[in-house]
Amino acid sequence: MGKTKIFTVLGKLTAGALIPEALNQGAKILNRELEKRQDYVKIPDVTGLPVEEAAMVLEKYGFQHSLIKATASPQFSNSTDNQVIKLVPRAKSNVPATTFLKVYYVDSATISESVILANKIREMKAIKKEKNHKNMQKIVQQTTKVTEKLTKKRHVSK
Q1: Is beta strand 83-88 parallel, antiparallel or unpaired with respect to 100-106?
Q2: pLDDT tens, position by position, 1-31
Q3: Which residues form the PASTA domain (predicted)?
Q4: 47, exposed or middle or buried, with CB in 10 Å at 0-12, 13-18, 19+?
Q5: Do residues 41 and 95 touch, judged by C-beta distance below 8 A?
Q6: What single-letter DSSP state applies at residue 72?
Q7: Where are the alpha helices (DSSP H) in the chain?
């Protein structure tokens, strides 16, 4: 019997003994995780709802939560007053029923600040676009001048 045949036979015997043990350990871990997640609840998606309505829905599911006023951001410029904009942990996540939720909302002051920010960003983009347009025109003019000079030199040298 050659060395390779001996190692092949030993490998098969060892694998045959270890595979069932590995499967048992894997099954134990999987069962433990499934048991742990049995009491998990899916967080309802209350983004876009008025704060009062969102609070009622979350209380119906048994979640404790706090209301947090969001800071101004251009993305909130089209929101409505007292609208829920974000949940932490995220909506539609599976979490234990005892999880504490943070409900972020916008009020009229936040929305007006967000509109101002959005307008500033729009203005800055317009200025940048105009600046890029002017630079492109300048480059085209310079390229045209260089081309004309080269054309004149070429005709003169003939």
Answers
A1: antiparallel
A2: 555 655 565 565 565 665 676 667 776 676 6
A3: 37-107
A4: middle
A5: yes
A6: P
A7: 3-36, 51-61, 108-157
Cβ neighbour number for residue 105 with a 10 Å cutoff: 23
pLDDT (tens digit, 9 = 90+) per residue, 28-80?
A: 676 676 666 677 889 999 999 999 999 999 999 889 999 999 999 999 999 99
Domain boundaries, given as residue ranges, for the chain:
1-37, 40-157
CB-count exposure of residue 84 (10 Å: 0-12, 13-18, 19+): buried
Closest CA to 49 of 106, 101, 92: 106
| Residue-wise DSSP of 84-115 | EEEEESPTT-EEETT-EEEEEEE-HHHHHHHH
